[in-house]
Specification:
The complex is a heterodimer of chains A (161) and B (205).
Chain A (H helix, E strand, L loop, with lengths): L2 E4 L4 E5 L4 E8 L3 E7 L4 E7 L16 H14 L8 E6 L15 H15 L3 E7 L5 E6 L5 E4 L6 E2 L1
Parallel strand pairs in A: 1-3, 6-7
Antiparallel strand pairs in A: 2-5, 3-8, 4-5, 4-6, 8-9, 9-10
Chain B lengths: L6 H26 L4 E2 L3 E6 L3 H4 L6 E11 L3 E8 H12 L11 H26 L3 E3 L3 E6 H11 L6 E11 L2 E11 L1 H16 L1
Classes of the chains: A alpha+beta (161), B alpha+beta (205).
Chain lengths: 161, 205
């Protein structure tokens, strides 16, 4: 039996239980970033909301893409993962509002994805698949058993990325 | 910002919400040329992160009508309705028999946008009348997607994840039919301070 572990806004979860599926429901501009160490079958999923903490604050939390990636990596390593073995998958980062009259403050999805790419590169983590951008929400599932990531959008079936 | 909604501000905003929503109902009645009323709205505060649960979970398909507020008052207004309710509300607004609308085409979206626009405008007018703080809404955007994805729009510009937001629940009634809609009002922090100051000033004497 599979157990779904919901990862809420600004949270992360890790698991080595092979039956667990880490799920971030209804991601819009948020990003779901999954890390997996295939050797020890350890999976972690981050549900980040904003690119980075506002200027001048040192708020390190999983709410932000940049600090969230560092925190998740730290927890993975603490649980026995080896950074060089870790693979990363990512989904989300849509721009939900493209109506006239709304300015670029709403390209937050794009900025979340850019922040993730930069941070992953800086930490030399290997991004092996992603489905980001667009204008629609996604539910992201990350399977502890094999490190698969799937997405589901409104009116569509779950599919692997 | 722990004490974001002190009791006094909440009660003042509740009164304004009441006024605003009744103004909105009158405006809508004029739009549809028939009596469309709104019941006494329930005004409460809810932790932002609880909102998806009130709507059946973050993956539930819903319709969001979103307005930004600019001027002396700045903030956001989001009206969120589960998808099936949005179809009912479209029927109600356009004066169609129940069950007529089966999907949201451009016409239905436009009707819902207008509903959001009117509600938002009249609500802002009520606040302006009470506080002297004038504001105008942006054109409304209508988003059809998962609840979680819709809520992300608010989080993109207001860091309210761990805060309480003001929630209005109102029923729209027309010829004995009713549809419930929930609204969330998310004033910018600075705006909340201005409103608090105005309320304090008007109650001081």
């Amino acid at each position: 039996m599979q157990d779904s572990l919901a990862v809420g806004l600004g949270e992360y979860k890790i698991s080595r239980n092979l039956d667990d599926v880490l799920v971030a429901y209804g991601l819009g501009s948020c990003v779901g970033i999954g890390m997996y160490d295939p050797q020890i079958r350890l999976a972690g999923l981050l549900h980040a909301v904003l690119p980075s903490s506002p200027n001048g604050t040192a708020d390190k939390s999983a709410k932000y893409v940049t600090s969230g990636i560092e925190i998740l990596l730290g927890e993975m390593v603490k649980a026995g993962a080896e950074p060089s073995r870790i693979i990363v998958r990512m989904a989300g980062g849509a721009n939900m509002l493209i109506a006239p009259g709304f300015n670029q403050a709403f390209n937050i999805g794009t900025r979340n994805v850019e922040a993730a790419h930069e941070m992953l590169q800086r930490l030399r983590l290997r991004l092996v698949s992603e489905e980001v951008g667009g204008t629609i929400g996604r539910t992201v599932r990350f399977y502890v058993r094999d490190g698969r990531m799937t997405i589901r959008t409104v009116g569509n079936q779950e599919r692997e990325i | 910002m722990e004490d974001t909604f002190s009791k006094k501000i909440q009660s003042a905003l509740t009164n304004m919400a009441n006024l605003g929503i009744h103004n909105a109902a009158r405006g809508m009645a004029a739009m549809v040329g028939e009596n469309l009323t709104v019941t006494e709205p329930q005004v409460t505060t809810v932790p932002f992160y609880e909102i998806p649960n009130l709507l059946g979970g973050p993956e539930t398909e819903a319709v969001g009508i979103y307005l930004r507020v600019e001027g002396s008052i700045r903030g956001q207004i989001m009206m969120v309705i589960p998808y099936s309710k949005a179809l009912e509300l479209a029927d109600l607004t356009m004066g169609e028999p129940p069950g007529t609308t089966s999907e949201l085409g451009p016409m239905e979206r436009s009707a819902l946008a207008e509903l959001g626009n009117l509600t938002g405008s009249f609500f802002l007018n009520a606040i302006a009348d009470n506080t002297g703080l004038a504001a105008r809404p942006s054109p409304p955007a209508v988003i059809v997607d998962m609840v979680g994805a819709i809520m992300d729009i608010i989080l993109a510009t207001a860091d309210v994840l761990s805060e309480e937001v003001l929630m209005l629940q109102a029923k729209f009634l027309r010829n004995g039919r009713e549809t419930q809609a929930d609204f969330w009002l998310i004033p910018d922090h600075q705006t909340l301070a201005s409103i608090a100051k105005q309320i304090g000033a008007s109650h001081a004497g």
